[in-house]
């Protein structure tokens, strides 16, 4: 009986957290999930539309701008095979949004298999009706790291 009550309580807590997110926050979470899929699919046309012209990308091996990131994805120098998102948090302030994803990333980096845990920070700016990504930063984390909501 206690396990049923615990399950129901946790389910209600999860539902209340989901409903507490605004439509805009849910839209950004979906955009972030779509971005991971586009990166996996090497769909540089969709990514080109998402990334702001002045966007910056911070990886474990360096920092570069939009054109280099798109070329890296297109040529497969980094293939973001699968990002398994474990947790996501969003904060919106005016026309700026920050999305944090805690992920396990399976990738191929210069022909080497790489499996890493990261917290990824994505910064977006509302431009007209669309959100554009201004920055994406990978931070290496321990498996005990949590995103505070």
UniProtKB/TrEMBL annotation:
It comes from the Bacteria. Coiled coil: none annotated. It holds the Pfam family DUF4440. Residues 1-20 form the signal peptide. Residues 36-133 form the DUF4440 domain. Keywords: Signal. InterPro entries: DUF4440, NTF2-like_dom_sf. This is Nuclear transport factor 2 family protein. It comes from Aquirufa echingensis. The lineage of its organism: Bacteria, Pseudomonadati, Bacteroidota, Cytophagia, Cytophagales.
């Amino acid at each position: 009986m206690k396990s049923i009550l615990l399950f129901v309580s946790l389910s209600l807590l999860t539902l209340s957290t989901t409903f507490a997110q605004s439509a805009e926050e849910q839209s950004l979470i979906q955009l972030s999930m779509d971005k991971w899929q586009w990166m996996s699919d090497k769909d540089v046309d969709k990514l080109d539309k998402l990334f702001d012209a002045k966007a910056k990308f911070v990886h474990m091996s360096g920092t570069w701008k939009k054109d280099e990131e798109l070329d890296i994805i297109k040529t497969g120098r980094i293939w973001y095979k699968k990002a398994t998102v474990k947790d996501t948090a969003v904060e919106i302030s005016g026309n700026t949004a920050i999305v944090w994803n805690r992920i396990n990333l399976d990738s191929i980096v210069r022909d080497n298999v790489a499996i890493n845990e990261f917290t990824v920070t994505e910064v977006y700016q509302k431009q007209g009706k669309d959100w554009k990504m201004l920055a994406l930063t990978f931070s290496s984390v321990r498996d005990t790291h949590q995103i505070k909501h």
